[in-house]
Sequence to fold (724 residues):
Amino acid sequence: MSESSLGSVEIDPISVAHVEAARSRQSSLTKPAGSLGRLEDIACQVAGIQHTDNPAIVDKWVVVAAADHGVVDEGVSAFPQTVTAQMVANFLSGGAAVSVLARQVGANVKIVDAGVAHPIPGDTSDLVVCKLAEGTNNFTDGPAMPREHAVEILREGMQLAKNLSQQGADLIAIGEMGIGNTTAASAITSVMLDQPPKTVTGHGTGIDEVTRLKKAYVVSRAITANAPQATDPVGVLATIGGYEIGLLAGVILGGAKTRTLVVLDGFISTSAALIAAAIAPKATQYMLASHKSVERGHMLALTHLGLRPVIDLDMRLGEASGAVLTIPIVESAVRLHNEMATFEEAQVSGKEEAGNPESVRS
Amino acid sequence: MSESSLGSVEIDPISVAHVEAARSRQSSLTKPAGSLGRLEDIACQVAGIQHTDNPAIVDKWVVVAAADHGVVDEGVSAFPQTVTAQMVANFLSGGAAVSVLARQVGANVKIVDAGVAHPIPGDTSDLVVCKLAEGTNNFTDGPAMPREHAVEILREGMQLAKNLSQQGADLIAIGEMGIGNTTAASAITSVMLDQPPKTVTGHGTGIDEVTRLKKAYVVSRAITANAPQATDPVGVLATIGGYEIGLLAGVILGGAKTRTLVVLDGFISTSAALIAAAIAPKATQYMLASHKSVERGHMLALTHLGLRPVIDLDMRLGEASGAVLTIPIVESAVRLHNEMATFEEAQVSGKEEAGNPESVRS
Fold:
């Protein structure tokens, strides 16, 4: 296989038989049919992913990939580039939002340097390094990275997910850190959804409206300069993407290949999902959308993927914070599925049909 | 004080000073300002409720009140009335959705018989009994309960919440069970919001559209027969309410009086919140809306109260399931507030102001 081609990524569909068996069990539980709403769908999805009648979410992982972006030279971010390395140090020392949330829900965290530009201060012994460059090139006048790098970072992500699955991971939540990466995510979303840059480009970490319009113009220039095609997702990643986005797209593909639920975070990890789904459409069956970001392109991207977020809290932090916040809800869905009594077990009467009440099903 | 008057219920506002101190701390944490969205608001609200710089959610309680409704004689529900008692038994034996969720999040559960019509099977030693009648009268041709009962059940609820708070409760999640109670909730919502019955009456546990319209007509008849006034919330509860709704309205008032966060569940517990807020408007400062129910009147009622739900999962189960599902998110909000590093602690650079990047704040 050539270095500049990923080759085909084969992903099995989730088990329809187990989804149907799970649906049937849901209708026997002591509640009006369908009244647990999307919790029922999540339980059925996990049953289908895990090919089991007893889905379980025990071993939980969070992958946070960090990288830098040459496009910050265009003045698209509210924060200086040094913040990427500083925040990686903050992840490693346990002071960041994702650190707090992962401790709460009992998830293990892998922090990945996928291409951070500045030296990372402090103890980096727990850092996973998959670094092909110190960030992308400014993609307004040429590709963000060589195509070989795009292929390689996708492979690194796939391998990381496979390793986690082999160690027993039941769930992988993904997130990112990278000053400037909402610009890359906007560019990817614009191309993959065939939407104008202005429609999908948001305020990132907190730029004003004038800067947002400048950022949308930067995205337009990048697309014009590189002419990426939605039909070539590896090319999209190489020309207007980012290393952390590529790593996360790989994690999604690797998770799907090894039958593991992947929980997306916000706008940027969803742009990685757009790349992954274009490489292997069945990957979407393994995805769960966690929260609805305030980034304007996010809902458009989720709709494109056929996903609906669980939580709506006006968040826009990234670093997997929304994904980790959703883990207890996934656990709830699975526990309800396994632990609730059936109508028969609890001797609770069923729904009355017109004029013909069912007797107690005991 | 007369038996037919509740008297005035004095509730202190939450501490503005502590809310402001919490806001200030939020802006010092290592994240773009405001990027944790409503998690920040929740942390600030809890700080204000608890009058502290270190809000905590440790001792968590769930109150599920059950009662029956004479209006089921009109054919407004998909389930027979015996299900109320059967589900109370299911709560007590740990097989219901709320039982599973409370175990998951480490919350204690109080199941209250506020007026169940049928005998409750099995071991009822853990049941709290606050029963003034075996359910309401059919309110289509007269009041649901004597006014004295409405006052008494509100007092019972207030006392229950005070007892929990005195034992150390940091949070009380509320929910209900009662075949027919979406009809009472629809009637309350219609009167308190001054909206037509058809607008606020939904499908309950799963009736079809024809039955829904019949149910809306039943609500209209009840309102015509009793002429309840929104300015007399105790009268609304007495004429078109229910015992479990009254108990929960009391729990809300008692929680607010003792500075405890009260997490609402869906449509029915929100109808209790409408009664509580009309009795003591400051009670809304102690409320958190958990999920957005598919019941059509729910969002209207939340908007009336100035509340916004956290979760949107198409649920319509009741029994505090949505409220308990939200507890980990409240815990996340508080933990993030207490445990995240500040920019200074983590030596992370702040936001760049136009042309004037802040230096690393170390």
Summary: Residues 147-166 of chain A form the longest helix (20 residues). The two ends of chain A are 62 Å apart (CA to CA).
